[in-house]
Amino acid sequence: MIEKYYEIQEKVQKTALKSYEQNLVAGTSGNVSYYDRENAIMAITATNLDYKIMTPEDVVLMHLDGEIIYGDLRPSSEWQMHAEIYRGLSHVNSVIHTHSPRATSFAVVHEDIPLILVEMLPFIGGDIPRAKFALPGSVELGKEAVIAMQNRNACLLENHGVVAVGTTLDQAYIRAVYVEDAAKIYHFARQVGEPKVLSNENIDLLRKKYNLK
Ligand SMILES: [Zn+2]
Question: Ranges for the Class II aldolase/adducin N-terminal domain (predicted)?
Fold first, then answer.
């Protein structure tokens, strides 16, 4: 029963390590999870563990109500946010939370990142909105993230960081990377001039091109 989760635990651990190596998180911050909806089991990174020494066995298996099924370590302090996102967004099976610095700087000044790049449409679903401030580790943080991501695959958490979601770990990860990339380019664009958002006409053309709703 638990053995069959090893592959998922390994994938969660590898995704967390990648996000560390890509500078999306610093120290032991950030967290990664995958939710097996069929068996209602969430695999989530452990709290306060260095990503460089984390093993697949360190990834905690638990139910969304907090019951631990496997693991000697405590789950991420943000497990309730992850659980609330899985409850609120039924198409989501993976959640990545980062403190990637350029995107988080917009979360700190309470500014959304507007739709200024063509890639933002297929990867994020549009602009990158903000979830209202809520305490770290709280259910409310998850509720605010669900509200912000009704039609998006990522959002900023005010004065805190970034959340990206997907149907797979790879999809959530690449979206978290694109959030930081969009924030970086928007930041540079503001230094060289006045950024222009995509026009509605071009958004329609892009939606057709990418087969988006
Ligand atoms: Zn955080």
Answer: 10-187
